UniProtKB/TrEMBL annotation:
InterPro entries with a match to the protein in the record: Glyco_trans_2-like (IPR001173), Glycosyltransf_2 (IPR050834), Nucleotide-diphossugar_trans (IPR029044)
PANTHER family hit by this protein: GLYCOSYLTRANSFERASE (PTHR43685), GLYCOSYLTRANSFERASE 2-LIKE DOMAIN-CONTAINING PROTEIN (PTHR43685:SF2)
Keyword tags: Membrane, Transferase, Transmembrane, Transmembrane helix
Originating species: Parabacteroides distasonis
Residues of the Glycosyltransferase 2-like domain: 2-151
Protein's name in the database: Glycosyltransferase
Transmembrane segments: 242-261
């Protein structure tokens, strides 16, 4: 991430790094970029992602806060696209989509497909086709500093704190927008165990969010559970008639073909997806 920030074509920015309970300290890595970036490094106790971002936001001097996760890599024109987009659409908060870099492993590309495809998540993470409104997420999110301060920043939720913040932004009447050109490479989990843990936490967060914001749970958010339930029913039904497997086979083939062609005909990505 820091290396990609050094390559930005738009250069008027500062960088705030907040380390919050990392297993491997980032001090040495940050030190390599101290002379190349307007870089400030802070270490706090294990307070959670929301509180860490709030701590970083208090140090910011600029008009806008741009929030990124440490596992993203930026194209060189990322900041330039944001600057241009804000000139055309001076919104209060915004976000961008995420992609998989060509250098990512097949499993990372497959997980990226599973998280971003319209066929799997309904396009709610910034796709052009979508079944629900776009909520900026903390892996690639921007907001006016004064709006951030008025809303009190992120809550103390351990998971889903970025969706909670986006809901609060919209409920307060502020303008939000997806900037399609402000995409990032998102280096996702490296194995299925980590991915399963992430999906489980996301499911838990959706329930907590609906309790905090009644009505925020939509049908599209229930698709993973409905899909799992449907698969179980179809498998059970196949013991009585093999035709019950046909819908499952068609859907699996559709995912395989779509994922493969979206990743330069990589059979491994198609199979893993």
């Amino acid at each position: 991430l820091l290396s990609s920030l050094c390559k930005q074509t738009y250069v008027h920015f500062e960088v705030i790094v907040v380390e919050d309970g990392s297993e491997i300290p980032a001090k040495e890595i940050v030190g390599r970029y101290q002379g190349r970036l307007d870089l400030h490094y802070y270490v706090i106790s294990n307070s959670g992602p929301g509180m860490a971002r709030n701590h970083g936001a208090r140090q910011v001097r600029g008009e806008y806060l741009l929030i990124l996760d440490s596992d993203v890599v930026l194209p060189s024109t990322w900041l330039e696209h944001i600057h241009d987009s804000l000139n055309h659409y001076p919104v209060d908060a915004f976000g961008g989509p995420d992609k998989a870099h060509a250098s990512f492993s097949p499993i990372q590309k497959a997980i990226n497909y599973a998280m971003t495809s319209f066929l799997t998540t309904g396009g709610i993470r910034g796709g052009k086709k979508k079944l629900d409104k776009f909520y900026p997420r903390s892996f690639n999110m921007g907001i006016r500093r004064d709006v951030y301060e008025r809303l009190g920043g992120f809550s103390g939720m351990r998971y889903g704190e970025d969706i909670d913040f986006s809901i609060r932004i919209m409920e307060a009447g502020y303008r939000t927008r997806l900037f399609p050109s402000a995409w990032v490479y998102h280096k996702r989990r490296t194995d299925l165990t980590q991915f399963f843990r992430q999906v489980r936490h996301s499911g838990e967060a959706r329930i907590a969010l609906n309790r905090k914001h009644p009505g925020s749970l939509k049908l599209v958010h229930c698709l993973p559970a409905l899909f799992t339930f449907s698969v179980c029913l179809l498998v059970i039904g196949s013991f009585f008639c093999w035709l019950f497997l046909v819908p499952l086979i068609i859907y699996a083939l559709l995912l395989f073909v779509d994922a493969m062609f979206r990743n330069k005909c990589d059979l491994r990505v198609g199979l893993l997806s």
